[in-house]
């Protein structure tokens, strides 16, 4: 599907866009199963985030299967009580035990400890965060800053700090909150290789 096709039929009302996004993200059976089981893991401030969500939407716009090409599924949580790598690994093992039958890679990352390893990996400082939402805010491309969560028996709720219009229009621009331009360009190029209607806008 071309960008014009996707954009022309996208509602502009924020509530309508949110409802559309949630409905489309849940067409991915893995997303739906992870969200259903997430409360049972009892992780603080837990969200299903980023690629598995917006890539599902872009797949549907392209007329592909919802799960096409999605390499992994990311869970953010926030536990400031234990910033050790060992604790994060233990959570990962719990997540794997809960979701292994889905047959997909699920990674759980404690947003309370990102600042302890980020500078070593990326050569840039990173502030200590105060919530999982802080982590979602800082993805390299604003339109990909999305997260879903639910409580037991409740419908999924969306966090999209920069809105959803650019996601549906296919606009990729750097995030001023985390402007790593080389990393952004590599990320944008990889997205455009899969969804060629996406547009890179740098200012």
Describe what you observe in this structure.
The two termini are 27 Å apart. The protein is an alpha/beta fold. The chain is built from nine helices and seven strands. The strands form two sheets. Strands 3-2-1-4-5 form a five-stranded mixed sheet. Helix 5 links the parallel strand 2 (72-77) and strand 3 (105-110). Helices cover 45% and strands 12% of the residues. Helix 3 crosses helix 5.
Primary descriptors:
Beta Polymerase, domain 2; 203 residues; 5-stranded mixed sheet; alpha/beta; globular; two-stranded parallel ribbon; 7 strands; disordered N terminus
Short description:
By secondary structure, this protein is of the alpha/beta class. The chain has helices at 3-8, 14-25, 29-41, 51-61, 85-99, 114-122, 132-137, 165-169, 181-194; strands spanning 47-49, 72-77, 105-110, 147-149, 157-159, 171-172, 199-200.
